[in-house]
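Quick one:
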Amino acid sequence: MKNRTIVRYLVYTLIGFTTLAAGVVLGKFFRDAQGIMETLPYLLIGIGAGVFGQNLSGVIKIWTKNKAPQAAKNKEIEEKDERNISLRHMAKAKAYDLMVIVFGSMITAIALFKIDRTLVIAFIIAYLFVLFSSIYFTIKYNKEM
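Output:
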């Protein structure tokens, strides 16, 4: 079972690397492209890099788990420890607080640079979506507890 999993991760890693390489090659040879061919290389690079990195991470995790099973078991116990879970949640909460401040400042700066209004409105909608989802989950969890 483990060999099938690592083979699957390796195949996806290869697909991601191929997609990444295809994006780089397209970007290199089609510099004067128009329409979709103008953005396609960058999409391929982004998707390829994400798929490659994510699956390479899975390969490395399985490989290290097979090499040192006791260390992997200790790490699993550490990850499930309530104190560590609480610390991760506190770190996420602080990062969220910082994100709200940074994104609000960036949206203000972008608006002052006289960028296209539709782009600024799209950023504002995304920002408000994050804030409203935070409010929703706060209310939901308060009702549960």
